[in-house]
Amino acid sequence: MEKITARHLTADFYGCKTSPLADEDSLRVNVSALFEKSGFHVMASTIQDLSEDHAALVLLLAEGHFAIHLYKSISYVAADFFLCEPAAAPEDLLQKIRSIFKPEKFRTTYLKRGDFSVSGADMKPKTQTRVAPLRRIHNTGAKVIRLLAHRKR
Prior knowledge:
The protein is an alpha+beta fold. Helices cover about 35% and strands about 40% of the residues.
């Protein structure tokens, strides 16, 4: 039996809407409120500009931490959820955070953190990628156009 002490979820959001990236202070307040509504206890929160194009939002939670890096010019967001409870469900929070940025595509990596020597289980993370329906339609259309152009040659 696995002994899990924490759950760790990372997420990459590609092609995000620009409005949440533009108003950092509002984003900090909204994300903090989202965690509080979900039953977490926000002990501290801060957002810092690390460069002209890169900002980081960090929430220290009684139950773990949440960090997010915002890259405005490329509409990219990298999020890190670390919850120090064996039964934590970071996936629920991921859906709520994803709804703020509305990415065209996102990738998640999920790790169970703790003592894996009990079962001898391998620590391979689970990775999942999803593409928004409109992006999928666009990509399929582009493939068809390339295929038709190649056949005309």
